[in-house]
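Retro notes, item 3 of 5
We never archived the inputs for the flavin mononucleotide complex last cycle. Fixing that now. Sequence and ligand:
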Amino acid sequence: MLQKDQKLCIVKIATIKKFIRIIIKKYMKSIIIYYSLTWFTKQVAEIIKKNLDSALLELKPLKEINSKWVWKYFWWGKMVMMKEKPELQEFNLDLSQYDIIILWTPVWAFSYTPVIRSFFDQYVIKDKKILLYCTHEWAYWKTLNQMEEKIKSWNIVMWKKDFNKNKLKNNDELNKIIKKWLDDMIFINL
Ligand SMILES: Cc1cc2nc3c(=O)[nH]c(=O)nc-3n(C[C@H](O)[C@H](O)[C@H](O)COP(=O)(O)O)c2cc1C
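Structure as it came back at the time:
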């Protein structure tokens, strides 16, 4: 059982975190740049958007990558292995408006997705604070390190985190986990 003082302390910390989150929302502009083939990364991005008031940029390939073809996983895996860069649909992005950039990719064949590779190729990110995330189902291996390698000479990578979809019980839990991440991230880095 928690003592009265401990409970008071927990309430105080929660209030401070809430206050800091409000300040960040107001004074630090963030954008989530992501790719999502199915729905999961998109769903996570929407939750962060709600919590941080972030802008969202969903990157999309010009030619639809999704397919009903039975060998599609091999095809997509091959795209990763061959380091292919599919052409992207046009997007408007002025990074000078943002203090924090959140880059999010699903893991494909233990790496980041071809669409994110195309983004790195097309867009130079400079002098930014960057948070790197990935969603996966079993193992992400070097995905986040590989992404960091791409951008770290020009930017500060503040936070790297993976998210295992299979460990998730329900949507409430997803909300809670993301709120906790944001709090930790805020406390450790800002
Ligand atoms: C082509 C392909 C390759 C994948 N490779 C991996 C992998 O190496 N490791 C892993 O844990 N999950 C892997 N996954 C699962 C996805 O990372 C996971 O389902 C992710 O949450 C999908 O995000 P999305 O719904 O936003 O597209 C792969 C999925 C696809 C389609």
